[in-house]
Amino acid sequence: MIAFAATVAGPTQAYDEGSVAGGGSIEGKVVFNGAVPMRKIIPTKDVEVCGGIREEPMIQVGPDKGVENVVVYLVAVAKGKAWPTKGKTPELDNVKCRFEPEVQVIRTGPLDVINKDPVLHNTHGYYGKRTAFNMALPNQGQDIPTELSRPGAVRVDCDAHGWMEGWIYVVDNPYYAITGADGKFTIADVPPGEYDLVAIHSFTGPVQQKVTVTASKPTSLPIELKK
Ligand SMILES: [Cu+2]
Fold first, then answer.
1. How many angstroms is it from 180 CA to the middle of ligand 1?
2. CA atoms of 49 and 97, how far apart (whole Å)
3. Beta partners for residue 139, in sequence order
4. Upstream peptide bond of 101 is cis (omega within 30 degrees of 0)
């Protein structure tokens, strides 16, 4: 995932937001055709909240091979559409010993980490091997604000429950999307031109490809993740 920080974020640059005349869109579907391995989850404590032994797929692939929770991102865009209006601070919730959302994209800035469970979580985020935040949340309803101040991929673990894993992708421009259960995504209001697009999933790692956006038209982009 260090690759994401290096290839996707690159050197931090200021993003210049404004109105986009004749913007096009990128519409795509991310697929994975390989075998889907399962991982065995063996909760060793707090089973009344965390659940019992189970198996979960390493990547969520639908019947037509579409992959859910893939982050798709345009690299190093200097100028373009405005950021979405600032609403509520993004949240990372601990719920039944899972991270909710499991994968999210946020702008550099604040993040609230919340424990919704009646058990201790110790939520620990990393840029690569470097700690981004590390906090004990012993109480249900506890809410600790933090800050992710640079772009890149942040893996989130729980030091109390080794199987918990989440991902936060911190971006420096608003041209990103997360695929739905069908693997599809749309990135809108892109100024015409050529871009590098990255699609990334924690199981496969990133793929990068070129895409040319035409004024006022959708560009269709199939993406295949490979392991
Ligand atoms: Cu935990």
1. 26
2. 7
3. none
4. yes
